[in-house]
Design goal:
CATH class of the domain at 31-120: Alpha Beta
Mean pLDDT: 76
Largest sheet: 5 strands, antiparallel
Order of helices and strands: EEEEHEEHEEEHHEEEHEEHEEHEHEEE
Oligomer: single chain
Low-confidence stretches: 8-25, 116-140, 150-159, 345-350
CATH architecture of the domain at 31-120: 2-Layer Sandwich
Radius of gyration: 23 Å
Number of helices: 8
Strand order of the largest sheet: 1-5-6-4-9
Shape: globular
Number of strands: 20
Structural class: alpha+beta
Length: 350
């Protein structure tokens, strides 16, 4: 099992079951801690070697190398500094480090970039209400049809077409997931980033099993540490989860998290607020991919969304910009993983 190097953590103590239990938590969330993403380091480099290079530039508190490569097949990791006054300046200095003829690529993670936190905060409750102006149309929307089903008179067509099977649970022994903790995330992101963040926050011996919606199964999370997380959220509201509880058969997602592609969106209004209006009937926008955010591709926008709709979403809308009208096609990415672990897709995908 791969471990991280860490120092200077703030120990919290809680007396449980007649003994003192110590856990190193919450120091990573403090305002004076700054994280950087890094890649393009030599194969022989480990966390200890990288620590020696990073500590020349500041007060290093943790170095972590991910167990799996990134989407380009490169090893990558994160480093945390304490007391950084100029994050952008430090980013530039770290980005110029050379180790055994390999120049590091270093930048602030997407979830820590200036402007991203504000955007994520603004979108936190998006989808609790519709955001499209003038969307109260006489015709039924795609959402209405998808959720309610087709109608013939007063009878729902899908009500009589759904087959039902009965599965009886095993009488002896419990399910493999009995007794496992489950968390509901405050902020949604793609699975690839989510696994990294949870490893940072909960420790590298806690597994991450994405259940769908904002729900994550956490095998390996002990009862003691779970109680500390609950206490931290109750007292300070600084944990990753708004709810943490044991899994039960009723713990099932009501939404899916999927990538959508928007083809034909007018580039003169290429902004997140307008993308949100375009998919408001589908519900919450979590974030866009790199190509959309940086405007590297303008033939289609790609959005990670949270939706109650069943697979596979396909719809068409008209976007009016001044006197002009544009047909925009909205298509859900489909495949073994639903596109959740990819930031970029093939031009023909969807």
């Amino acid at each position: 099992m791969q471990t991280s190097s860490s120092a200077g953590g703030q120990l919290q103590q809680l007396k449980l079951g007649g003994r003192n239990t110590h856990y190193d938590i919450n120091w990573r969330n403090k305002a004076d801690i700054t994280s950087f993403y890094f890649t393009h380091f030599p194969d022989e480099a480990n966390e200890e070697m990288l620590w020696r290079h990073f500590k020349k530039w500041g007060d290093v508190r943790e170095v972590y190398i991910a167990k799996r490569p990134n989407k380009e097949g490169r090893r990558y990791g994160f480093v945390r500094f304490k007391g950084v006054l100029d994050a952008k300046g430090l980013e530039i200095r770290l980005d110029n480090i050379v180790i055994n003829k390999c120049k590091l690529f270093v930048n602030l993670p997407r979830f820590d970039r200036p402007g991203r936190k504000t955007e994520l905060q603004e979108s936190k409750h998006v989808g609790r209400k519709k955001m499209i102006e003038g969307s109260n149309l006489a015709r039924r929307s795609y959402v209405d049809v998808a959720i309610q089903g087709g109608c013939q008179g007063d009878t729902r067509v899908d009500e009589v077409r759904k087959p039902t099977i009965q599965i009886n649970p095993e009488e002896r022994g419990g399910s493999w997931c009995d007794g496992t903790w489950m968390g509901k995330l405050k902020k949604m992101t793609e699975v690839e980033t989510l696994e990294d963040r949870l490893a940072w926050e909960l420790g590298y011996n806690v597994g991450t099993k994405f259940l769908g919606d904002d729900m994550v199964l956490l095998p390996g999370l002990s009862d003691d540490k779970a109680r500390l997380l609950i206490q931290s959220e109750t007292e300070r509201g600084d944990s990753l989860f708004y709810e943490l509880k044991k899994w039960s058969p009723s713990s099932r997602p009501n939404n899916r998290v999927v990538w959508l592609q928007l083809w034909g969106f007018p580039i003169q209004v290429w902004e997140m607020k307008n993308f949100r209006r375009a998919v408001a009937d589908i519900r919450d926008v979590i974030e866009s991919d790199d190509d959309t955010e940086d405007r590297r591709r303008l033939d289609r926008a790609r959005l990670l969304v949270r939706t109650p709709l069943p697979p596979s979403i396909r719809s068409e809308i008209i976007v009016r910009v001044g006197e002009l009208e544009y047909n925009v096609w909205i298509v859900e990415e489909v495949g073994p993983d639903g596109g959740l672990t990819k930031r970029r897709s093939l031009p023909s995908e969807g």
